[in-house]
Design a protein that fits this description.
By secondary structure, this protein is mainly beta. It has one domain: Endonuclease/exonuclease/phosphatase (Deoxyribonuclease I, Chain A, 4-Layer Sandwich), CATH 3.60.10. It has three helices and 14 strands. α1 links the parallel β2 and β3. The chain is globular, with a radius of gyration of 18 Å. 32% of the residues are buried.
Length: 230
Amino acid sequence: MAFEYNFEGYQKILQNVCKNLIINMIFETQCFFNIIFIQEPSWSFIYLLSSLKNSKGKDLVGVLNHPNLITFSRNTTNISDSSRVITYINIRLISLYFSSHNNIFNYWDISCISFVNCSLVYFLINIYSDSSQLALKYLKDIEVDINDILIMTGDFNIRDCSWNLNFCFHSIYKDVLLNIANSFYLEMFESTNHVLTKYSNNQQELDSVINLMFFRLTSLKYDNHSIYPD
């Protein structure tokens, strides 16, 4: 499921790739996007690095890159414990000085990236919160003094009737998520087309909406995001 949205003149796309290998297809077919948010990318072993601490060497693990895109991800040497969020920035935006800030949110599945526009610093947040809601619990328990977040988006794995009319129940995590967004002066915004974002292979589980967009309160007028069905 992919989100396409235009925000302050920059086209962006959000995609949960569910650990498959479609990132390369996204590079080829969605090259006109300036910013690509990915959740659950497929990490793979590249080659063995020499190491002073380990005679057997150290694994170099990575994800797909593209010559026209700058990759923002956390370094890892363990595929099973790798980050589940990656953000790609098109090199045509290099003048905006994009930078990663693991010091602000020191959590594996949260990507915080800043850029500079007209001497002001803005932030983009890409999140994957698993079924145990570990990323959400992390955000709830920390105190962060951060202003000017333009977008907080990702796969939150929260099924709730507030954003999915086909779902009959409230999640205990809905208010937690909305309180976190409110603390960052963000508001959830619905897509221009009402399409489900998670299609289940399990007949016991309903299709649902788990990918959400939160925008800065003063910038909602710029949003017109839509969803590409699978």
